[in-house]
Each structure stands twice: as C-alpha cells, then as structure tokens.
Amino acid sequence: MGQRHQAFIIARVVPSGSPPKGAYYRCVGALHHQWCYGRLPLKAATRFMTLIKQEDNALIIREELRAMDGLYRLYGPIPDVPCPFTYFLFESAWSTDLSKEEDSYNSNVMTLKAGEGSKQGVNNDGITIIDVTDPANPSYHIVMLQCFI
Questions:
Q1: Cα–Cα dist 113/135, whole Å
Q2: Of 35, 47, 55, 131, which sees the most CB atoms within 10 A?
Q3: 0.85 exceeded by the pTM?
Q4: Any idea what DSSP says for residue 147?
Q5: Alpha-carbon torsion, ordered 131, 23, 31, 82, to 10 deg
Q6: What is the pLDDT of residue 149?
Q7: What is the rounded distance in angstroms from the CA atom of residue 135 to the CA atom of residue 53?
C-alpha cells in the first residue's frame, strides 16, 4: 500500500583500476519512501539540494566523494551507504519538511542499498535521481510512473 517512490543520489567517482580522469556515475545513496506522491518528490529534492549547496555541507560531500575514488570497481559491490553524511542530509530532506509550521511534515523512509538497481524496488509512483558530483550545482530528474494495479 502507499504511493511508493524511490530516490537515488549519484555522483561521478573514479573506479579502482581506472585512469585518473576515468570517472563514472555510481549510486552513492538510495532510499524508499512509502507515501511520496504529487509535489512531494519535487519538494524533497529541493530541500536536499538546498542542504547540499551550503558551503560546509558541500565541503564534506566533496571529501566523501573524493575518498571513494579508486576504492570500488565500476560494477562491483559497494557499501550500502558509502557516503554517510551525504545520506544523512538526503534522508533528512526526504523525511521532514518544517517550512510551514501549520503544515509540518515527518515521514519514515527506508534505506536502500547503494548497489541496488533502480528497477529492484517496489514502486508505483516514480523515482528521483540527484547528481551530487558538484554539490554547489546539483542536478536532478524525476521520473513519474503510470502504473495501474
């Protein structure tokens, strides 16, 4: 039950054994939200991008991504949450909205494995993908699904 939506953080990282300029996109965080529909994915993505653009947060995110360079193969296993601080901001933005006191929002989300594909979760609403390679200039894409069960 619910309006299930998954969200993924991606970034360009250098896999082990690659030349120095051989960065490829890799998922560095993923979550499942049981009741995320309508404008909620856009609002959550906007909250997350606002958080990662903060100078102190961006510095830590860049360091987490830099620390991943050369550690993991392009298609091999990866820790479930390889960038814990980035994921903390991600989960906070997707589970809480305090922008309006009378309309505050709090919901549970479930951590997905960063190595899990976007087609492996139960989903009947859509997915959001956010590129944090450059935290000062993130990009995102929201794919809404039309599913009739």
A1: 21
A2: 47
A3: yes
A4: -
A5: -130
A6: 43
A7: 6
